[in-house]
Structure formats: C-alpha cells, structure tokens
Specification:
single chain; mainly alpha; Arc Repressor Mutant, subunit A; Tetracycline Repressor, domain 2; 2 domains; 10 helices; 0% strand; elongated
Amino acid sequence: MAQTAKRQQRPNPDDVRQVILDATLRLYLENGYAGTNTDEIAALSSVSKQTIYRHFADKDDLVREAIRRLIAAAEDQGAESFDALAGSDDPARDLRIFARQHLRDVIQPDIMRIRRRIIAEVDRFPDVARAWYDAAPKRGQEKLAASFARLQERGFLRMEDPMLAAEQFNWLILSGPLNRAMFDAASVTDTSRHAAYADAAVDVFLAAYGAGRS
C-alpha cells in the first residue's frame, strides 16, 4: 500500500516538462540565451539539474522547445481560422475574420518580446532564429497557402503561386501593427486600428487575387 501511494504521488512527467519549459522561457525573455543557464532554470522550476537532463538534451534543446511551446499555444488559438477559411463559401467575409484573428494571435506581449529577443541574438544564435522561423512564420504561411489552394480549386480565387499570395496577404495584414509593436512596446495592447488594417488587407488582396477581378 505504501509503495502504491508513493507511485501515485510522483509528479506527472508532462507536468514536470511544462514547469521546466515555463521557467526556461521566462529566463530567456529576461536574460537572453547567453544569460540563461540550467542552474537558474532548475532553481526556478524547483527541480534538480539531473531532472532537467532527463527531459532535455542540453540548453539549446530547452530554449528551442520553450519557443515551440509558445508558438504552439498561439497556433491553437488560430487553428480554426485556417480550417474555416479553406472551407469558406464567402471568402470576403471569412478572409476578414481570419485577418482580424491573425492580428490577435501575433500581436501579443509574449510573442513580441520573444521576436525582439530572437532578432537581437540572430547573429550569435542562428539556430534559435531558424527554429522560430520554421515553426512560426514559415509554417503559418504554408497553412495559409494550402487554404488559398483549396479556395482556388473551388473557384473563389485566381493565382499562380499560392505561397507567394500567402506571404503577401500575411504582410498586408501585419506590416503596420507588427512594425509598430516591435519598436514601441506600449502599442502592443492598442488594438484600436486592427480591424481597419485587417479589412483593408482583404480589400487589396481580393483586388489582386479575387476570382471576379478584371
């Protein structure tokens, strides 16, 4: 009975991983890659270094996985937007819904902080920057391109290169708010013009790629 009780009291490995990753992300955002070390991660997580190395190969693995977790959380928020867009019967309406959601997903305090941190350290730690790009901007644009290809198959859009169209639409939506948020941290919570940016992006996009364009 005592041995059974002890087994039941052991922490869930997934919970331990999450606590370690939360601590890693917090320290990385505060101190950067060079200023983050496993001793501090262990202390903040209330685990031993041996426990950390049972779950992760090294500090690189820790930082990459912490970043991926943050990206995954943002992706979960926007996943339904991609699905709804691909199956839309009213692209003008659903592109606007998608564009507004996309701004909400990207212009977030933690996302902006980590973008600034990664860009500041890209020359010293290119692997971290590449991992961010592959898991966030590149993956998002690939999903958007797949949605556009579906819409084109159904006769709603006309384009030769769905990936190029996805990249263009992404920046039509994000360019103004994202550039401002990257350099002015206080603007991250100012969403007053986001709907206007999103709707204008859709108007320009459909003028270029809508099936009814001249």
